[in-house]
Amino acid sequence: xxxxLLRTLRGENCTPRPLWLMRQAGRYLPEYxxxxxxxxxxxxxxxxxxxxxxxxxQPIRRFGFDGAILFSDILIVPYAMGQDLEFLAGxxxxxxxxxxxxxxxxxxxxxxxxxxxxxxxxxxxxLLPGDKTLLGFAxxxxxxxxxxxxxxxxxxxxxxxxxxxRDPAAFQAIIxxxxxxxxxxxxxxxxxGAEAVQLFDSWAGSLAPAEFxxxxxxxxxxxxxxxxxxxxxxxxxxxxxxxxxxxxxxxIETGVDTLGLDETIDPLWAARTxxxxxxVQGNLDPLLLLACGGELExxxxxxxxxxxxxxxxxxxxxxxxxxxxxxxxxxxxxxxRGWRG
Length: 341
Prior knowledge:
Distance between the termini: 23 Å
CATH class: Alpha Beta
Number of domains: 1
Helix content: 40-55%
Largest sheet: 7 strands, parallel
Radius of gyration: 19 Å
Order of helices and strands: HHHHEHEEHEHHHEHEHEHEHHEH
Mean pLDDT: 96
């Protein structure tokens, strides 16, 4: 029988609620920090399939989450498209050459850079308990493009938004190229053993409505349609962070099976406004895991109660913070596992 998480992603209103946390495999875990100290930098870990599989499984062993999400990074796609990628300590990722300065045609694809990721998926699948769901993922085209164009993250995606206005044809070509590689990449993850996949659009909230339609909804709809044709029955989670009132349009027009909600979304509004029966995922503020105590329980129950009448995957509104105490995660688990609606 499929696990609790997979059943929920397929539209079953399950109790207790399945639970996993974005960035659950990472820096807040002492076992992760120990392995990273042994193995080296972040990208080295991603490309060591045995180490990446171990990191993917660490939070399952410690907390028994219902889903294991692949340990990797959204910038593996542009890396496979031919951009250079490095992670600088304390500064984040850097990509070169920047596509604000260089034509897309100057990149030379290196598709074999995806192969170690597929091997990680295979290794995790072989070791994951049968009642747990293996989640693959990729960055959504808009968010990936912001790094490809600017070479690094930014607060307002100024360079990328300006390019999309200034030369929409050139920017469309970048988006189309990302879409094509992402379809193949997620399909490869599914063939290797991923049972569901998530599209992370971390910078979706920076766009005006018309631009959101063109650069967020349309590309994600293309990816979802292609995956459904190739892999019917494999759920796709869409997470357009910061989308706000544009969420209903995103849900309907992209065709995602589950909609991820960030912490700025009122769960009562979402429960009333989103398509009836659509599974949702989220959306506790990650900072509540630092506060802990009564407020954590109160707000977690508010989220759970709001989505009592539809399939709901309990999660954070974004990634877990690296200074989060393990006992706070355990408190949250107890609250979610004890809820019965």
